[in-house]
TrEMBL record, chains A, B:
GO biological process: 'de novo' IMP biosynthetic process
GO cellular component, one term: cytoplasm
Localisation: Cytoplasm
Source organism (scientific name): Antarctobacter heliothermus
EC number, UniProt record: 6.3.5.3
InterPro entries: PurS, PurS-like_sf
Location (main, coarse): cytoplasm
Lineage, highest ranks first: Bacteria, Pseudomonadati, Pseudomonadota, Alphaproteobacteria, Rhodobacterales
Gene name of the encoded protein: purS
Name of protein: Phosphoribosylformylglycinamidine synthase subunit PurS
Function as written in the Swiss-Prot or TrEMBL entry: Part of the phosphoribosylformylglycinamidine synthase complex involved in the purines biosynthetic pathway. Catalyzes the ATP-dependent conversion of formylglycinamide ribonucleotide (FGAR) and glutamine to yield formylglycinamidine ribonucleotide (FGAM) and glutamate. The FGAM synthase complex is composed of three subunits. PurQ produces an ammonia molecule by converting glutamine to glutamate. PurL transfers the ammonia molecule to FGAR to form FGAM in an ATP-dependent manner.
Keywords of the record: ATP-binding, Cytoplasm, Ligase, Nucleotide-binding, Purine biosynthesis
Catalysed transformations (reactions): N(2)-formyl-N(1)-(5-phospho-beta-D-ribosyl)glycinamide + L-glutamine + ATP + H2O = 2-formamido-N(1)-(5-O-phospho-beta-D-ribosyl)acetamidine + L-glutamate + ADP + phosphate + H(+)
SUPFAM superfamilies (alphabetical): PurS-like (SSF82697)
Amino acid sequence: MKVRVHVMLKDGVLDPQGEAVRHALGALGFDGVGSVRQGKVIEMDLADGTSEDKIGEMCEKLLANTVIESYRIETL
Amino acid sequence: MKVRVHVMLKDGVLDPQGEAVRHALGALGFDGVGSVRQGKVIEMDLADGTSEDKIGEMCEKLLANTVIESYRIETL
């Protein structure tokens, strides 16, 4: 089974990467760019039948820093 | 309007980050993890009516390195 995990910084956590992208887009002449947040996405091939709980455990233990990041699991 | 851009390394391009995640999951005792690919996701607030062409231009010029990365635009 294929799974996609989205990891984003929580609201209120400063996102310097996103800010850099916003500035760079402005400098390139793209107008109307409001807030920009950058996160990561991890696509994994897992054994069929891997439970969502197990995937949540992977996120909690390794993929996301739950102090500052939130994650979302999407099964493809 | 809210837009999400997914940027992933193209197939065939070595993904050391993904490999590191795969190894780490194995070391943590998670079995059955096949290939892992890591990419980035950029969420942007754009002016209403920004065309998909314009967003594509942002990707080509800044957000993705199209030599090794592919991108996908998702309007929310």
